[in-house]
Fold this protein.
Amino acid sequence: MINKFKEKQFLIINLYLIFILLAFLSNNASAQSIAFVNQQKLLEKAPQAESARNKLQKEFAPRDKTLVGLQKEIQDLTIKLQKDAAVMSASAVNKLKRKISSLRRDLERDKEAFREDLTLRQNEELVKLQQVVSQAIAKVAEEKKYDLIVSDGVIYASKRIDITEIILDALKLKFNEKQ
């Protein structure tokens, strides 16, 4: 009988300790500050992203213009071949066909090189932008005393904890300081 009483007393004490521990943990958890940030939105709307897009546009515009000019030349020569083939000599027709074929190969080679170079530069600029965004998130987290900021893989985040706009404002401020 004494053993059963001690067992019940031990069980009650353990349950009481568990409730105290749970209450303590829930109080600490509510004191922690958690936020959500939509990194994709930041990567799209940050002024640094627009600046990077403009930089790439300026960097690759001359090559793009050259490719468009080469396409136009091929198109013009093809039209000329179709129109004038009947009045041209066989050797002139063959020479024009070879020239068109050669220009098409050059165009395809140049297009592929253009795509590869553009993709490489886009990736370089994306890495830079991701670093700037990560630094801005860390800075806001420290300033606002957030314990945890979550991003990708979140199924739901209320607007109350979404700090994307705060980070975006910090990025705009940083961008304007550099200007």
Notes: Helices lie at 2-31, 39-45, 47-84, 90-143, 164-178. Residues 1-31 form one domain. The first strand starts at residue 34 and ends at 36. The longest helix spans residues 90-143.
